[in-house]
Amino acid sequence: MKVDWDIFCKVVDNYGDIGVTWRLARQLVAEHHCAIRLWVDDLRAFERLCPELDINAARQWQHGVEVCHWPTDWQPADAADVVIAAFACQLPSAYMEAMAAREKAPLWMNLDYLSAEDWIIGCHGLPSVKYKQVQKYFFFPGFQVGTGGLLRERGLLERREQFQHSTEAQHEFLQGLGVDRTDGARLISLFAYENVGLADWLDVMAGDAHATHLLVPEGRILGDVERWLGVDGLSVGALQVRGALTVQVLPFVRQDQYDLLLWSCDFNAVRGEDSFVRAQWAARPMLWHIYQQEEDVHLDKLEAFLTLYTAGLSPAAKAALVGLWRAWNTGAGMAEAWVATQEHWPELQKHAQAWCLEQASQADLASALVQFYLNWI
Question: Do residues 109 and 198 share a domain?
């Protein structure tokens, strides 16, 4: 008998919440044969990741997942065997009553934000609050043993390796996006929030002796790119050349295509949570733009990850990479940090591959959630 799961997602900002829950829901269906209802409050934002979605439908099936609009005027619904409140979203009060009314209480988990901070190991899997007789549990994705791991579909690394070893497959994919890669040019993807440090980085790439082809999917960073280029209204397909730098605007693509983009590039600048994890599976040097929080608490999370990620690097390579990430996330000058990073490029490439394999040696997030349920029952 299939186990029924309800996953609740409030789209707060920038597609990160729905990106994670949509990927998780599909994997639970495809690999673990779970019956999934994904409750989403903003179907219009969801449509960017799933273009075939009917934004006016209260219920619909997409990729084996029952997608349900989470309305403000909640209608009665039976509670599932497993209930996931993604990123601490508050469940409808009527649904919580339905959980409490079940003969056997469901497993209720708060799927929290990804973090490399040490304290999450001690909190992962612990009981949280109760609603009547229904107990909620903390579930933390993470990078270390003792956490919930990272989202990773079965066979992902094998597919990536096959793609990265096929010049023909990469060429065909890039051509489909209108990208004609210049021989010898370093290919970089840029997906980020607004960043005052971008101009300095673009300046140094434009003046470099090494050619760079910068691919910029539609998103919030595009305004900063336009200001640097001195143009308005860059649209998909726009191509601008400044010195050694070619800048090209790409469409906002669905998740499987974004994976291929990351796999095609030599370096990936990413943002948020979902693209951050996917860049690690790409096994290429990367740069993370972490979501800014009040009182700069996000910088503590950044440092926690850097401590883990840079272990094993030579002191010089570590200093260069840490300097680059700190500059990018504090709006500082990027030029010196980028030049220093390039001096250690071969080491950073090997390190990205080793980190990817290290993370893949742990259980993936979907499997860890299923195992948690099996242990619970």
Answer: no
Q: Is the dihedral of CA 139, 141, 147, 148 positive or negative?
A: positive
Check residue 183 and give its pLDDT: 80
Q: What is the pLDDT of residue 104?
A: 95
Indicate whether 198 and 286 sit together in one domain.
yes
Do residues 27 and 106 share a domain?
yes
3-state secondary structure of 169: helix
Active site residue 273: yes
C-alpha closest to that of 178 among 129, 249, 130:
249
Q: Which of 273, 274, 347, 364 is catalytic?
A: 273
Whether 336 is catalytic:
no
CATH code, domain with 114? 3.40.50
CB 305 within 8 A of CB 288: yes
pLDDT for residue 13: 66
Q: What is the CATH number of the domain that holds 183?
A: 3.40.50.2000
Q: For tokens 């290919």, what's the residue?
A: 187
Q: What is the reported pLDDT for 332? A: 86
Note the pLDDT of residue 374.
Answer: 96
Look at the chain and report how many structural domains it folds into.
2
Pair 182, 124 in one domain: no
The reply to whether 11 and 50 lie within a common domain is yes
**pLDDT digits 0-9 by tens, 117-147:** 999 999 999 999 999 999 999 999 999 999 9
Q: Which of 245, 242, 270 is nearest to 258 (CA)?
A: 270
Residues 37 and 161 in one domain: no
Sheet holding 245-250, edge to edge: 239-242, 245-250, 212-217, 186-190, 267-271, 286-289
Q: Which residues of the chain have pLDDT under 50?
A: none
Residues 356 and 368 in one domain: no
Amino acid 14: pLDDT:
61
In which domain, by residue range, is 253 found? 156-360
Same domain, 180 and 58: no
From 17, 41, 274, 364, active-site residue: 17
Calculate ∠ Cα 182-183-188, nearest 5°. Answer: 60
Taking only the tens place, the pLDDT of each residue in 140-193 is: 999 999 999 999 999 999 999 999 999 999 999 999 999 998 788 999 999 999
